[in-house]
Structures
1.
Amino acid sequence: MKRESMDGAIEERFLASLGMIAGIGATFVLLTIAACAAPSAGAQVTPQRLLDSAKEPQNWLMYSGDYAGRRFSTLEQINTSNAAMLVPKWVYQTMAGGKFETTSLVVDGILYGTGQDNRAFALDARSGRPIWQYQRALPADIRPCCGRVNRGMAILGDKVFLGTLDAHVIALDSKTGNVVWDVATVDYRGGYSITLAPLVIKNLVLIGVSGGEYGIRGFIDAYDAGTGERKWRFYTVPGPGEPGHETWEGDSWKIGGAPAWITGTYDPATNTTFWTTGNPSPSNRGEGRAGDNLYSNSLLALEPETGKLKWYFQFSKHDEHDYDATQVPVMVDQGDRHLILQANRNGFFYLIDRSNGKLMFANPFAKVTWSDSKDASGVPLGRKDASPTLKGNRVCPGAAGATNWMSPTYDPQTQLFYVTAREQCDVFSTAPQAYEAGHAYYGSAYFPNDDAEPFTGALRAIDPNTGKMKWEWKHPSPTWSGVLSTAGGLVFTGDAEGNFIALEAASGKALWHFQCGASVYSSPMSFAIDGKQYVAVAAGSALFTFALP
Amino acid sequence: MYMPRTNFRRSKFWPRRWRLRFLFGCAVAVGCAAATVALRAQDKNPFAGNAKDAKLGESQFRANCAFCHGLGARGGGRGPDLSRAQKRHGNSDADLFRTINEGVPGTAMPHNGATQQGVGMTEEEIWQVISYIRSVQVKAPAQPAGNAAHGKELFNGSAACSTCHMIQGKGGRLGPDLSTTASARSTDYLVESVRSPSRRLAQGISEAMKEFSQEYETVTVVTADGTKFMGVVLNEDHFTLQMMDTREQLHLFEKDKLRSLEKSRESLMPAHDQKTLSDKDLEDVIAYLLAVGAQ
């Protein structure tokens, strides 16, 4: 019995502790509710605020501005009548080399951005003065394809989230920049990295991986925003026994690629998140991976809580031209039609019913030679003789695509879709290559073609009802800048020559430009503080903001 | 190493601070020697002469280098011909490794992994690329068949090349400086550039011998007051133009203030056919360029 009483005493103490914990917890909850109720600046970003982002146009709460991926700002202080007066307000220098691809977030006067080599920073969005700066200590042996870049963060509660070049997801304290949690998604030495901005849905941080040049097996993950615990993983290359596995020859699925390296979108009405995927590996050699190679170059409709696949649509089957479908899938509603718009790297503009993944139509928005036919449902099919050869085969679009990861925008006022286009054909050659973990695995090379006109670029305004071009603004050379549209009747974009440009959304007439001194490799955004509207864009190693004088 | 027969510790000849310096110097020298040994280990290609590695290197070359240097390393629009025995930035294994890994400052050759488009290479992969380059390299430096001295006369005289091209600080500014061109370009490339200078211009492939690449497009503008200028484009964007006219004057324009602006991919350089420059004379000019390039 002695023993029992001892146990009883322990139990008593344990219960007392529990009571204390419960008490503290209750107090915390009450405090949290109080904080949420207070309408002050610096209130935490709740899942509801993310859903209602349209109610706070002064803030830019996620990568594409809203869950629909439209990159449209309802701010209209800067408009067609005064855009010519825009002036730079402040510039923030990362002092880093390489491409600066971030789209910043702005929440209640604080701007959160990421820089090259996994830098992150929080700035006073009125002055550009840093509140905190962070840089990750990266392993020496990472070799991310295509630059040591990052496109931005996601925010929820008191944390901001980013993916890293060594394939981790980390949460930083939004007030201090301190690391709150740090989770490896996978061993980066297999050729994995993360460059996209995560997407927060409810209490989950959704993220995908890069590595289509290394023979990875792509996936999309969801992490608990509070703890970093992984809730689900969706492999973009199905394993044995899973539907779609039969679209891979032999063991090719193990190194099938299909990275998911651009931020998805979310439809709260149907609780569906839309993600896009990149090329099958090796990118330019189809030999050894016979089949459609699902779900490479696809649009995926997933249930956010589970990662369960609702439907998919594959843009380029059995791709051999590096035609990643990693362009933001933009949601647009027309009456009772609920659509997804995508101008794809393969040169076609697609209109898709987002309730079931059925194609409405696909029309070229740039020069296309890889496809010369469509199936019964209108899906463009590859030409048999467009495959890369040992000596080289000229195909349009070229390896950089008719567009790429730079964001398009949809303007509900003009009802036009604006996209950065590239007119360049390449000579695709193939070179048999053995797979070696973590080593580049293209199986190929490409060259500027020998006989064509010099390649060019353009900003194109597309009517989504027809896929036809309404107007274009020609760039002297192709740009890697995305596009922002605003309720002021403007679209903003940058060029490879360093100009940041405001155009009239209806006509494509340039109203203003500023020479940033280096190529723009980012998608612009807009925010407001104290009733003053700003437009921000990253160029060179600097983040520029502009406003009226 | 020469060591004076001196008792270090007690020598008055070597004051303490000198002794320390000497010891420090020795330590540095030993350290350097060790470092040199370590570096030396990397100076030689561990895969030299290995056909299998050369094949792997070819894959790497196609993915990382061929965009500028051409499929067979014979030079492309931007990059030099690497099948030549002589390489402008050094020909030893260590030189090639350094050039690939660190790039060439002041040119379009980036350091490894810096192209921002492709994937960087591991050290092993760089050595494999070097094995590949060695496998396609011609054995001996090309012996120019022509008469370089006569070529020089032509260059500065009747062929009038020096009107627009500079060599070692002498000549014109309108065309590319040719002091190092022949050390990087194949003879075929040089012949084509003289016989049909517009061909490469038409391809829109830029001259990458400078870090700031230039295409030498021909431009004709008429200003608001009706003055006409013809020359080459130095740079331009959507809104502005920077050009050099045929009298080597710089002009800087805002495009919307010009009455007209016409660009052409027809080079300002006249095409030299057999009548204006015989095969023999062209051979001599190229011999001169090769002689200069080798310096």
2.
Amino acid sequence: MALISDKDRETIRTHFEENLTGDVEIVMFTERESPIIVPGKEPCEMCAQTQQLLEEVTSLSEKLKLTVHDIALATAEASALNIDRVPAFVFKGASRGQVRFFGIPSGYEFSALIADLIDVSKGTTELSEETRKYLSELKEDINIKVFTTPT
Amino acid sequence: MAVESEHVTADVIEAMEFPDLSRRYAVRGVPKIVINETTEFVGALPEADYLAQVRRAIEGNGGSQQ
């Protein structure tokens, strides 16, 4: 069963057509479901659902592409992006810095996902002139963590 | 912000899925924002105030209280 309703799919498809400019690749890290139970290790509850959601989103525009890695196999790619847990994904497009999502982007975060895809596609944001100037002159590294819940 | 600067990494973390991180960063309400491990606040802020928090984190005057 689809996670995104038919009505929402059409709304998002139109929104992408009007706003996506450059190509964006979503690089996702997941964990393959294993028939072997490893003591002390929790299976990834949201991996399959996150992958399905991203597959549905990327199917709505030719400018979007999804690449899925098994974190156990793609260790070099994961460590280059500082990804140490799943499900996680990053965007590759016209963004200067890195945007990473950890966990399923449902609820309010789903609209953040759609908005971020458009910003990364355009390589710019709707932030004020002052903020953008400040960021363009930034010399120090900044990490911003935003904790959310799926409501 | 991460789209605008190569120096910015933005992480969106689903707190329920990663209770270890939620505990480490003492997440009791969302959205909770942590900048460079030093400056933190809960709730959405107007853009100018958000930028002020980023400046504070860079200038090493972290530990802003909610």
